[in-house]
Amino acid sequence: MIKPYYDYAGITIYHGDCLEIMPQLEPVDLVITSPPYNIKTGKGGAWNVEDWYEDDKPELEYQAEQIYALNLMAKLTNCVCYNHKIRQRENLAIHPLEWILKTNLKLFQEIIWNRKSTHNHCGNYFWPIDERIYILVRNPIVVERRDYTTIWTFNFEQSAYHCAPFPKTLPMRLLKAISCDSVLDPFMGSGTTLVAAKQLNRKAIGIEIEEKYVEIAIKRLQQEVIPFTEQKNRMQNIGSDTDKQESLIK
Fold first, then answer.
1. What is the structure's pLDDT at 231?
2. What's the whole-model pTM score?
3. How far apart are CA 38 and CA 74, in angstroms?
């Protein structure tokens, strides 16, 4: 059994290739993930940013890898929330459903994430400001927050942690809407899904192939945030102690 890189307070992180690690994991209640998009990033790529993933595989190889990854996820859970987008390659649109429908998962619902902006500026087509969140299942589920619509509008995140993180709002909504005690993110990045899970008292597992992002995720998780009610109680206790001290002085 593979040894965790980090394991504390219900949060476990593995450093390595998720295709090799997922077969060794126990089942979870939910998967929330966003894989690299294969959009020619990285040194010498479309954006020429050295800190980004090398993300330029032959498209058919990339799609076959995603099918394999999704099928591994399907063995671990009944529900996968999969964030991806329609991409342009060689002046043609490639829709994620081209490979999603070839997996062992069924499409339960598609959510459009309106990012309101984009860094994909190109004169050949309209600027894409949307991404997709695919809720994929083996068996139908019941969502608990049916007040949400199928269009989610919130800004993408610019972060010092990671080249392309999704905002914490995204996994937070999914964790609140879909009943679960444990969640897996096999393409963890800087750990946003795990941070959201920690705040909502869910157990979480993350897998990340780049060690620098594993370290960043651990640092984020170690930044304890005191809940408002706890903080209020502490302030009240401080005030009470101060009153006692003043009464003794008098």
1. 44
2. 0.83
3. 22
Q: Which two tokens stand for residue 118?
A: 């984009």
Domain covering 6-249 in this structure, CATH number: 3.40.50.150
**Is 89's pLDDT higher than 80?**
yes
What are the CB-based long-range contacts (under 8 Å, 24+) for 151-158?
151/111, 151/112, 151/114, 152/111, 152/112, 152/113, 152/114, 153/113, 153/114, 153/116, 154/113, 154/114, 154/115, 154/116, 155/115, 155/116, 155/117, 156/115, 156/116, 156/117
What is the average pLDDT across 37-49?
55
- Give the integer Cα–Cα distance in Å for 188 and 19: 13
Most confident of 30-44, 48-62, 85-99, 179-193: 179-193
Helix, strand, coil % (nearest 5) of the chain? 30, 20, 45
**Angle between helices 211-222 and 192-199 in degrees, nearest 10:** 20
Nearest to 194 by CA among 51, 4, 41, 54: 4
Question: Mapping DSSP to helix (H, G, I), strand (E, B) and coil, where does residue 14 land?
Answer: strand
Q: Which helix (H) or strand (E) holds 87?
A: strand 87-89
The CA distance from 13 to 212, in Å, is 13
